[in-house]
Amino acid sequence: QITLKESGPTLVKPTQTLTLTCTFSGFALSTDGVGVGWIRQPPGKALEWLALIYWNDDKRYSPSLRSRLTITKDSSKNQVVLTMTNMDPVDTATFYCVRRQTVLSSFDMFDYWGQGILVTVSS
Amino acid sequence: DIQLTQSPSFLSAFVGDRVTITCRASQAINNYLAWYQQKPGKVPKLLIYAASTLQSGVPSRFSGSGSGTEFTLTISSLQPEDFATYYCQQLNSYTYIFGQGTKLEIK
Fold this sequence. Notes:
The structure holds 2 protein chains of 2 kinds.
Chain A: E1 3-7, E2 11-12, E3 18-25, E4 35-41, E5 48-54, E6 59-61, E7 69-74, E8 79-84, E9 93-103, E10 107-113, E11 117-121
Chain B: E1 4-7, E2 10-13, E3 19-25, E4 33-38, E5 45-49, E6 53-54, E7 62-67, E8 70-75, E9 85-90, E10 102-106
Parallel strand pairs in B: 2-10
Antiparallel strand pairs in B: 1-3, 3-8, 4-5, 4-9, 5-6, 7-8, 9-10
């Protein structure tokens, strides 16, 4: 059974750095083709992809947020960590952790999602 | 950067209706497109990947088509549980942009 779970602070102050951890089970991030990523969703708004880290430690970021994001992995602990700097109230959102899978080495999908964690940015 | 535009943004329909949602990409993405369904307060669920391949367990009334820059998600006969928000996502060139969503409501 594949599960992902987000953890971290639910309230951060403006200008602070947010650190979120995704702890997963049921698959290995060392497996060829697998990735773990982060997506956020402000209340009542659309999904926004943030970052993804691959089995080979390649990393990809949203172009609009690249300067604020860092994603790392600890495959031995089955964890992926996202940091987002200089938080602002507009960054208030539910943050989801996802598994990226690929089929036929070509077709990606986000097939498993964590339950999400609501992070509020407020002083 | 590739942009995705969904239309319509809002759709009202009856149970039993056939509905189609369109997703247009600002540049060609082959068939590297997925569709997700999100019900209020719930986690998004993968419906379709590679533009037209149904994820395991998804009812056959859902179908996807398209390639290049224009894609569609069709629900052949709406069921009460299908009323939700639908998102397309492009997965080309290691970027994973979402469309703005289409909210499907009961008429």
